[in-house]
Amino acid sequence: MAIASRVTKRALSTFAAAKLPEEAIAATTAAAVPLASSAPSASSERTTKQVLQFEDTGRLFAGEPTSALLRTLAALQALSVGPLVDVATAALRSPAVAGSALGRAAARATAYRHFCAGETADEAAAVVRRLWRGGMGGILDYGIEDAEDSDSCDRNAAGFISAVDVAAALPPGSASVCIKITALCPIALLEKTSDLLRWQKKHPSFNLPWKTHSFPILSESSPLHLTASEPPALTAEEERELQLAHERLLAVCARCAEHGIPLLVDAEYATVQPAIDYFTFVGALAFNDGAGEQRPIVHGTFQAYLRDARDRLEAMVRSAERERVRLGLKVVRGAYLTRETRLAAALGVPSPVHGSIQETHDCYNGCAAFLLDRVRRGSASVMLATHNVESGQLAAARAQELGIPKGDRNLQFAQLMGMADGLSLSLRNAGFQVSKYLPYGPVEQIIPYLIRRAEENRGLLSASSFDRQLLRKELVRRVKTAVAGREWSELVEPCEGRVGSTVPVKVKLGQGRVEG
């Protein structure tokens, strides 16, 4: 069974367009395609240099025990059964089920085991060590989000700082830490702050006295319609709470800077994303020194499924270069599609998400190429987080074309634990820096994350289809090898005699024997 590794002509044209950073990629008129295809197209008309190889699954999965491959295939196959996933996610969304001991036990034994690194930081650290021995790193994600009050935010900040301390005790370069701003600032305040930032974008003279920087976080193509009327100003208490959130974030950043641990700030949903970007650049302006050669500490996240992603990216890069800030960015496709679509429909406004998966692919590939050029210039650090084989192949080839050393810590690739292992291993085998995203924490705390992963892998044409194909091919190969080995062992018998004998075996031929 051949594993396609060809790259579409369309995707190549997207990468070519990105060589001119300030030019927008030409608008696409392609019809929408199913939302899950992550494998390269078999009908490609043109190929790029094949930096990543998937044909030899024996080499790809070398060192991976068969039991682990079987467990992974079983989990991904179960997640591909749409009705089963629908029932499971409905159960996880039910407080009665998710809050029960039986519900937690069921989640722990299934999706949690596959997608998560454990309940404690020490368990997650053990996974990082195992990955490091295998040539990859880990991203520690204390899986908490959506804090409701200041006390929760304080506890969450302490948890993030603990994660940094755990990362600092691991082998140098093996770990980074991921956080969510929704865990450091109450959700209601983030929503109100985002409304105010959107309103100021529409009305530049609108004064925000608490705003500490003018880094661009919105563009004309951003979903400004989410704020339809002038929002009320922050109260004195809200401004104080906003300042406390700043202090929590800066405390986490400072601990990362102390130990040289990269900090990745996750993107979230559109109603709070402006405030998240605002906070991210508070940290970046304080800790990312553009004059040095070290990898920046604070990395923001861009979601390529958003229509305004490319416009905002270019504006941020230009501003960072003017301010002499070393930009750190993680590029993802986006994980809140269902939420964004439902909200837009409920409000009767256009969705902030691209109209087709192909437009998202084009945007991701264009943003990746744009940022790879900045890595070559030494002005940015980039983590390309993707499960899409075509995007991985294109980015790897482009990095090689630009002459970016494969050991350059300013270019990283990343995939989630339990997903796209074939792509992770192929990138590692090609010499690139690769990390797996490792959420950890109590089961009930991780449930929102598990629901997103279940939805992402739902259906036979889901994001995991290429991985399932690779796993089946390798398992079949191992079975054939084992059968052939058993047949040979029956064919060849040991000969009694001392070690080093020139006649070590007796070989069966048909019904008779030929003796040495």
TrEMBL record:
Record's keyword terms, sorted: Coiled coil, FAD, Flavoprotein, Oxidoreductase, Proline metabolism
EC number: 1.5.5.2
SUPFAM superfamilies: FAD-linked oxidoreductase
Cofactor(s) recorded in Swiss-Prot or TrEMBL: FAD
Proline dehydrogenase domain span: 127-462
A GO MF label: FAD binding
A GO cellular-component term linked to this record: mitochondrion
EC main group: oxidoreductase
Coiled-coil ranges per UniProt: 303-330
A Pfam family the protein falls into: Pro_dh
InterPro entries linked to this entry: FAD-linked_oxidoreductase-like, Proline_DH_dom, Proline_oxidase
One GO term of the biological process aspect: L-proline catabolic process to L-glutamate
Catalysis performed (reactions): L-proline + a quinone = (S)-1-pyrroline-5-carboxylate + a quinol + H(+)
Keyword Coiled coil: yes
Family: Belongs to the proline oxidase family.
Entry function: Converts proline to delta-1-pyrroline-5-carboxylate.
Record protein name field: Proline dehydrogenase
Organism: Miscanthus lutarioriparius
Phylogenetic lineage: Eukaryota, Viridiplantae, Streptophyta, Embryophyta, Tracheophyta
